[in-house]
Write a structure and sequence with these properties.
Rossmann fold, globular, 6-stranded mixed beta sheet, about 300 residues, alpha/beta
């Protein structure tokens, strides 16, 4: 078995006759692991083909995506610009750990008030941004667009080369990773997404639109679970943090509190409820995101 594929022995899975595996995409690259790198792969190829030397993108102050774009810029010799949601730090104030690393990787950071940030997908606003910062390849918040899907679809082939599975499970933020996985499935293989944000029902329409644009069809049979958000995006509870700590003690794997912790909590609860048939092999995907812990500790202790 590949070092990226780990058996997760949990009493609830054993009791239900479900084989649970964890795909460690967080270990796939020493500097740029996880789903953010997969979303970037074909976007960066397109940027290079179009003659761009600058990447411009958007994100919150603790964004995994901002961190990944900054690292990609350093590794692949792109200039990077990050438009950050929120107020600029006051003079002399230290940046949070995510933005400190992004700046160290060469990203120029600029700040947008929340009303401006809400316009980030509007063509007129993007034209204003390009006029201000110069020509750039624009990546959307979270890195989700049509070119993000084929990089995520390749993950299905990598997993399938290691193990036959019945279902893949992944955390869902913008929906791009799940959409990409859907385009890579075949036969009776299924996908399950666990939404990390509150009121995530809108994600199905977003995912359907992405797959329609990418491969000309939608995939109606996937499962989108919206009950494991723990209060909303980047919200948490003592129960979630205790689960993450106990999971690390049992399996030696650090989950993150924004995405993968909620996903694994949800998957185990669904196994308990009998969501997966006895004899099923379920592969949960660790999409990375551990960089968020430094900022988490800074904010919450």
């Amino acid at each position: 078995m590949s070092k990226l594929l780990q058996e997760i022995r949990e009493p609830v899975a054993n009791a239900r006759g479900v084989r649970l595996l964890l795909w460690r995409d967080d270990l796939a690259h020493p500097d740029l692991p996880g789903n953010k790198a997969r979303k970037l792969k074909y976007n960066l190829q397109a940027a290079r083909a179009q003659g761009h030397r600058t990447l411009l993108t958007f994100g919150g102050a603790y964004s995994n995506h901002l961190a990944a774009v900054a690292t990609a810029g350093r590794l692949l010799d792109f200039r990077t610009i990050g438009l950050v949601r929120g107020d600029a730090p006051t003079a002399g104030a230290a940046l949070n750990p995510t933005l400190t690393q992004a700046a160290a990787d060469g990203m120029a950071l600029h700040y947008l008030d929340r009303s401006s940030y809400r316009r980030r997908a509007e063509p007129e606003f993007l034209a204003e941004v390009q006029a201000r910062f110069g020509p750039a390849y624009v990546l959307p918040e979270g890195g989700t667009n049509v070119l993000a899907l084929p990089g995520c679809a390749e993950l299905v082939d990598e997993i399938r080369a290691q193990v036959e599975f019945d279902a893949l499970a992944v955390a869902v933020g913008t929906g791009g990773t799940l959409a990409g996985l859907l385009t890579g499935l075949c036969g009776l293989e299924q996908a399950l997404g666990v939404a990390a944000l509150k009121n995530g029902g809108f994600l199905r329409a977003e995912i359907d639109e992405l797959t329609q644009q990418a491969v000309g069809k939608t995939f109606p049979d996937y499962s989108l679970q919206t009950d494991y958000h723990f209060g909303g995006y980047a919200r948490y509870s003592a129960e979630l943090l205790a689960f993450i700590e106990a999971f690390q003690q049992r399996h030696g794997v650090l989950l993150d509190p924004i995405y993968t912790g909620k996903m694994l909590f949800g998957v185990l609860d669904l196994i308990r409820q009998g969501h997966f048939a006895p004899g099923s092999t379920v592969v949960a995907i660790h999409t990375g995101g551990q960089q968020a812990w430094a900022g988490w500790h800074q904010r919450f202790g």
